[in-house]
Amino acid sequence: MQVKKILGAMVVLGLFFINATAQNNYHPKADKKLLKTIEQNFTDAAAQYKVLEKNLPADKFPKTYFPATGKYEFSNSGWWCSGFYPGTLLYLYQETKDTALYNEAMRILAVLKKEQFNTSTHDLGFMMYCSFGNANQIAPSPAYKEILLNSAKSLATRFNPAVGCIKSWDGKPNEYLVIIDNMMNLKLLFWATQASGDSSFYKIAVSHANTTMKNHFRADNSSYHVLNYNATTGAVQQKKTAQGFADESAWARGQAWGLYGYTETYRETKDKKYLDQANKIASFILNHPNFPADKIAYWDFNAPDIPDALRDASAAAIMASAFIELSGYVNKKTAKKYFATAEMILKNLSAEKYKAAAGTNGGFILQHGVGHMPNKTEIDVPLTYGDYYFVEAMLRYKNSTKK
Ligand code: GLY
Asked: Is the confidence at residue 6, as pLDDT, over 50?
């Protein structure tokens, strides 16, 4: 009986792997013109980031820039976006081999390093994996490993087994707030299990992904932004928004985080239910009547002033990066659709409307992101994460079309 069970499991696993690879026979062809544009974008982005570097106070991190007033907004290392500047520099270094970019990344990583012990935020995946994770890919070192493992330990302190999720925001005593964005912090935990052999990180990540899959999504596969759980019973007390147009609307960046997060969770676990979830999110995005023909999402799919509503270049960049990866896991027909979407996003973000002219935009690469509309902050401005995922998507495009 036991042998039968094991054999059965082997067959299922075998079929699964055959399926996973058989579905993966899509070899996208590069659009030569776009590839040339991308090469130019890397050069231009490197020059832009030197403008940004010149204007950056020594202990600060870039958040945004207001073209109308020429003013920057910087942050301390504890802000959720602090990993994107070093992460972008390291991606650009990979392409340009410009050591000045690498040296600047090393300088700012030394400022960021102390956040490994920060237990007051759920954003340690963004902050530490996009930065130290990228540095460790380029030049693996025990020092990076220690920083990343400490960061994962700090993140794990925010997990509550009764809820099954990592706490995103510290709310009122009766609130346990979890946002869809938090799917993006799981990669750090998956990495930590691989690096240490300690499965507790992996288990937390999987629990978070499962609980989010169960509660965060609507029947149409769009996601709520914020869920408020009862910390003792794990019951859902409230479903709402913070950064979207309305509690029942589909905030564009939230949909992008979900798409990227479940694609990544599938990559890390190879559990098909996460791939299914990513495909469902993709289907919501691609079939939505308010998803524009140029594929640069409005800041909210239900923004009341569509077609005049602002676009969010950051959501578009995240979607492009996610769609390229997801196209590697699905059947050929679907892969073509996903890849074409990413290609169109990259073409449009590379055009004058979104890509800043040399020396402008405070040195940021992309224009026209929307940070927090309800707060009336960071509206129609460059955003550090928009740049990060744009550069990542271009790298993914280049690599996935390599012969
Ligand atoms: N994670 C916050 C945001 O996407 O604005």
From this structure: no
**Ligand 1 pocket at CB < 6 A:** 80, 181, 243, 253, 371
Q: Whose CA is nearest to atom 2 of ligand 1?
A: 181
The per-residue pLDDT for range 226-261, each reduced to its tens digit, is 999 999 999 999 999 999 999 999 999 999 999 999
- Please tell me the predicted confidence (pLDDT) of residue 10: 37
Q: Which residues are catalytic?
A: 123, 181
- CB < 8 Å & 24+ apart, contacts of 116-119: 116/147, 116/148, 116/150, 116/151, 116/154, 117/150, 117/154, 118/78, 118/154, 119/154, 119/157, 119/158
Domains of the chain, with CATH numbers? 3-400 (1.50.10.10)
Specify the ligand 1 atom closest to the Cα of 179: 1
Q: Which of 123, 385, 387 most suits a substitution to test ligand 1, by most atoms within 8 Å of the C-beta?
A: 385
Q: What angle do CA 84, 265, 256 make, to 5 degrees?
A: 55
pLDDT over 90 at 193, yes or no: yes
| pTM of this structure | 0.94
pLDDT for position 24: 62
If you take atom 1 of ligand 1, which residue's CA is the nearest one?
181
